[in-house]
Amino acid sequence: MGTARRAGPPAPPLGATPGRCRRAARRGRAPAPAAPSTPASPPAPGPAFGAYLDYGPRGVARIAELSRWLGGADLRVAHTYLPGDRWSNIEGLPGFLDAWADWRKQEDDRLFVLNVPMLERNEEGVSDSEVRGLLRRGAAGEYDHHFRKLAERLVELGVPDTVVVLGWEMNGITYTHRCGPDPEAWKTYWNRIVTAMRAVPGQKFRFDFTPNRGHDAVPWTRCYPGDETVDIIGMDSYDQPRGQSFDEAVTEPYGLQQHVDFAKEHGKPISYPEWGLFRNGDNATYMRRMLAWLDEHKPLYNTLTDYCPHGVWQCDDNPRASEVYRKALFGRTDTEVPAPTDPTPKPTAPPAVPPTRPSNCSPVELGDWVEYWLGGKLCLRFDWWSRTR
C-alpha cells in the first residue's frame, strides 16, 4: 500500500519455500415446488470467498481449518503471493506452487488467486527515478521471458486458469512495480506481460487489475491498461485511514463506489483480493458494512487478509469483528440460491465467542482422520515464541 499503509506479510527467506466475504448468513429456502418432469440443473456456484492464510503449504492446510471454524463453510478461493525479491522467484520458485495447484485441482469450482510482482526487488524502496527506468525496460520487452516461464510453470502444474493479480496496489508507493513514476510505461509493460503469458499454449489465465482503494499516490484510473488485457477489476480495501467511516470509504474519490461504477462501465467483474481491518482497530461496524457491501455487489471472489492487524481468525486482537465475520459466514456453501422472502429459520448461529486454544500452545497438523479419532487437535507447547498460528 501507499504512505502509512498496512504492512504486507513478511518476505520469505531467500532460497526457502515462501509462506503469505460478504454478509453471508445462509438463508432458508422456499417450500419446494412439485417435482419437475425432468431433473433440474444444479445451481451455479455463487461468488467465491476465502482468506489469505500463509504464503506456502501451511496456507493451503489452514483452508480446511478455517472452514471448520466457519461451520463447514465452502472456502473456494486459495490466495498466495509470489516473492518479489528476485526474478527466479517471480518465475515461480520450484516446489512453491505445487500444494496450491493440488488444492485447486481437487474441485472444479475452486479458484487459485496468485499475486505476481512485475519487477524484482519489489519491496526494497527503489527510487522513483530507478523505477521509471525499470518500467521503460519492461515496456521494451526486456522482462517478457520471466513471465513466459511463470505461465509455462502454471500450465505444467495443471492450473492454467489461475487468476493473476498482476502488479497489485500500483497506485501506491510501496512496491517497485508502482505506476506513479511513469503511468504510460507501466501500462505498456502490463500489456506486454499479459501478451507474453497468454501466448503460452494451454493457458486460460484471468488478469486482475487491483489498486488500493482511494487516491493514494496517483489516481488508479490513470494506470488502467485497457479492456483487452484486463479480465477483472479488483480493489484492496482496508479499514483506514483512522477515523474514516464506511460511508466515506464508499464515496471518497476512487473509493468503493467508483470501483463498482468503473468496472460496470468497462463490462468487467469486480473482486476484492485483499480486505480487512487496520487503522480503526477491532471495528465490528466496518466488518459488518464490508460484508454487506460484498453481498450487495457480488464480486467474482473476495479474500480476507487474515493476519494481525487485519484478520479475525489467526489474530486475537479483533474479537468483536471476528464474531461478526463468523456469524455471517457460518455454514455458507455459496451453492444455494437465496430466497429473501422465505421465513424459514436460519441455521443455528455459532457461539458468540470463538473457541480459543490454551495459551502458548500450537496445534499439530495430523490430518482430518487422526483428529476425528482424537476428538480434536493435538496441541503442543513448542511454539512459545510465537503468538500466531
Explain how this protein is built.
This is GH26 domain-containing protein. There is one protein chain. This protein is of the alpha/beta class. The chain folds into two domains: 309 residues, TIM Barrel, CATH 3.20.20.80; 33 residues, no CATH class. It has eleven helices and eleven strands. Strands 1-2-3-4-5-6-8-9 form an eight-stranded parallel β-barrel, surrounded by four helices. The relative contact order is 0.16. The N terminus and C terminus are likely disordered.
For the secondary structure, the number of strands is: 11
> Which CATH top level class of the largest domain fits?
Alpha Beta
Overall pLDDT confidence = 83
| CATH architecture grouping of the largest domain | Alpha-Beta Barrel
Uncertain runs are 1-5, 10-44, 336-349, 352-362, 367-377, 380-389
Instruction: Measure the end-to-end span.
Output: 25 Å
Task: Spell out the helices and strands N to C.
Answer: EHEHHEHHEHEEEHHEHEHEHE
Which structural category do the helix and sheet elements fall into? alpha/beta
User: Radius of gyration, rounded?
Assistant: 21 Å
Number of domains: 2
What fraction of residues sit in β-strands? 5-15%
Helix amount, in percent?
25-40%
The description of the largest β-sheet is: 8 strands, parallel, barrel
In CATH terms, the superfamily of the largest domain is Glycosidases
What features would you highlight for this structure?
alpha/beta; TIM Barrel; 11 strands; disordered C terminus; two-stranded antiparallel ribbon; 389 residues; eight-stranded parallel β-barrel; 2 domains; single chain
